TrEMBL record:
The HTH luxR-type domain, residue ranges: 140-205
Pfam family, one: GerE
Record-linked PANTHER family: DNA-BINDING TRANSCRIPTIONAL ACTIVATOR DEVR_DOSR, HTH LUXR-TYPE DOMAIN-CONTAINING PROTEIN
The keyword Transcription is assigned to this record: yes
The protein's name: LuxR C-terminal-related transcriptional regulator
Record keyword Transcription present: yes
Keywords: DNA-binding, Transcription, Transcription regulation
UniProt-listed CDD domains: LuxR_C_like
Listed InterPro entries: Sig_transdc_resp-reg_C-effctor (IPR016032), Tscrpt_reg_LuxR_C (IPR000792), WH-like_DNA-bd_sf (IPR036388)
Species per Swiss-Prot/TrEMBL record: Shewanella corallii
Length: 210
């Protein structure tokens, strides 16, 4: 159980920020810091106990990078995703060790506030379907050993939130070569999207460093 004292909202929506700033501090008796994703610093994060990320204005890759950054901090910080997309595969964002809540894009503010109340009491508020792990058979676990060293390196690079262009620079190859490696790796591990590949890599890849 953790006690929420200081919250941070990461969003590019001034309207949402102003709405929540007028409500949450009074409703939950917390200090709310409002910031854009580009302005988040490690020092600023260290002062928080709950970080709320607005997925309607913060792209999934940036949200993943922010959560990874929070995971590495010594402070006990939890993340909450609001306006979570229903039609986009973003399950790779959910990490029960740091994610305390996820609220869909069509959830009402009242529903979110109720869920945050649960979180303040030390519980989690994550939809059941987002907590379901994909079995090795579905994710192609049996074919993991068939990955080449380079394919493993590329998959590992996805975990840092790197784009294809970033990975190409890191490995000193062309972007088209990275796309080829990803295509072959996706087929071997049985995934069809970048999000699924990241989820697979979180579970199966630990030894390769790029």
């Amino acid at each position: 159980m953790f006690k929420v004292i200081r919250w941070m909202l990461i969003s590019r929506s001034r309207l949402l920020a102003e709405l929540l700033d007028s409500r949450w501090p009074q409703e939950f008796l917390v200090k709310l810091t409002l910031t854009e994703p580009e302005k988040v610093s490690e020092h600023l994060l260290m002062e928080q106990t709950l970080v709320v990320i607005d997925l309607a204005t913060v792209d999934l890759q940036k949200a993943y990078q922010l959560q990874r950054q929070i995971e590495r901090l010594p402070a006990s910080i939890r993340t909450v995703f609001v306006q979570y997309p229903r039609k986009v595969d973003a399950k790779f964002l959910i990490n029960p060790s740091v994610t305390a809540g996820a609220f869909y894009i069509d959830d009402s503010l009242e529903f979110i506030s109720h869920g945050l109340g649960d979180i303040m009491n030390g519980r989690y508020h994550i939809p059941g379907e987002l907590l379901k792990t994909v079995g090795d058979d579905e994710m192609g676990g049996d074919d993991a050993d068939n990955l080449t060293i380079r394919e493993r390196e590329v998959l590992q690079a996805l975990l840092s939130g790197s784009t294809n262009q970033d990975i190409a620079r890191q490995l000193f190859v062309s972007e088209s070569t990275i796309k080829t490696h990803l295509y072959r790796a996706f087929r071997k591990i049985g995934v069809s999207s970048r999000g699924q590949a990241i989820a697979w890599a979180q579970t199966h890849l630990h030894e390769v460093q790029v």
